[in-house]
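Quick one: structure for this chain?
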Amino acid sequence: MGKKMLDVGCGGGILSESLANLGAEVTAIDASKKTINIAKAHAKKVKSKVTYLNTTTEAILSNSSNLKFDLITCLEMLEHVPDPSQTIIEFSSLLSPSGDLIISTINRNPRSYLFAVIGAEYILNLLPKGTHDYSKFIKPSEISRWIRSSNLLLKETIGLSYNPITDTYWLGKDIAVNYMMHIKRENGLN
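Got it. Here's what it folds into:
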């Protein structure tokens, strides 16, 4: 792979370690010191070469405006930040020419509230109660607007679905609850 990669909101580092195992030079960041410490402990056990930092994209930009990444991932984190549109601007500033951005988040509609909040937090107990704030869920059209104003291009949107009975996940056309976007910086765009 050989790409410089930034995993934003890396959590325990599952994606970060997988990408490092494929040959990426991975920097993984999370605003939670506790989470980063867990990721570092696991990385030490499995001899992972991921660089874990307790920081934010805003802090990275304030320390080094020249730092660029070929791939930025932000999975299930954007709906937890105070200003997701600003986070998209920060991603744009950190992307290299021809860089790729992969994000996943939760759509904002009654079905997503039913599944992601009521179902996941209160019925199935998959997540701690209060994990999600419905008002912070993000419609794909909102992200599309933010990326256009950040000189990025939307390449693909795909739905993420989960069946709690069979404990299976799959990708498909249904973006009503969870969805992923592949966003690209084209050569020469600032």
